[in-house]
Amino acid sequence: MQNVFGDSKNRWRADKRRIALWGAALLFLLPSPGLTETYKYADENGSVYFVDSLDKVPVQYRKNVQVLPEVRREEKAPRAPAAPVEERSLIGRWECRGSQNGNSYTVIMSLRPKGIFDGNGFKKTGEKTSVWMFKGNWRLMDGDLVLTYTWSSAAEPKRGTSQFDTILEVNDQFMEVKSGRTGEVVRYLRK
Question: Do residues 169 and 176 touch, judged by C-beta distance below 8 A?
Fold first, then answer.
């Protein structure tokens, strides 16, 4: 005669293990807090935009949107400079050159006394060169360079928006910041 209680006990143990395995699998499938999707799209002029919601992508560009791998977003980039940065060490003309998707770009920005900045950018796409200009106010806040745009000839950044870039290093030759918008590290050369 078979032990009825022994079989049900073994079945119960097996069921508990299956439930635990399913629970663990579900934990991996649930979105983690702090992880968000980033969407990348380009407009008809070739300008590239990064947004955190598909709703922020204009309808006409949604067919070509690219979902980037999940990136852990932090409220602020990790602290870098050991010593506080002095405002006067940032005053001057700064230039950043790079390439994105095979297109070269240059951004020239002047940080002026009394918290005023202005500049322009150039992006070469094949034979076409796009130029944009911008201006606004700047300040230092808790180790971040805060740029508040009062005007821009480009669609982004919008008027009245602020960008918080963590200053990683600044000296007589260059300023390195971690972009609060994209998370990438950008190096500006002093000109």
Answer: yes
The number of beta carbons lying within 10 Å of the beta carbon of residue 16 is 10
Q: Please answer whether residues 159 and 151 qualify as being in contact, where contact means their C-beta atoms are separated by less than 8 angstroms.
A: yes
Sort residue 142 into left (φ over 0), alpha (ψ -120 to 50) or beta: left
pTM, 2 dp: 0.56
pLDDT at 114 over 80: yes
The reply to whether 162 and 95 lie within a common domain is yes
Could you tell me if 50 and 113 lie in one domain?
A: no
Specify whether 112 is located in the same domain as 155.
yes
**Domain encompassing residue 158:** 87-190
pLDDT number for residue 28: 47
Q: What is the CATH number of the domain that holds 146?
A: 2.40.128.490
C-alpha Rg value of the chain to the nearest Å: 25
CA distance 50 to 44: 15
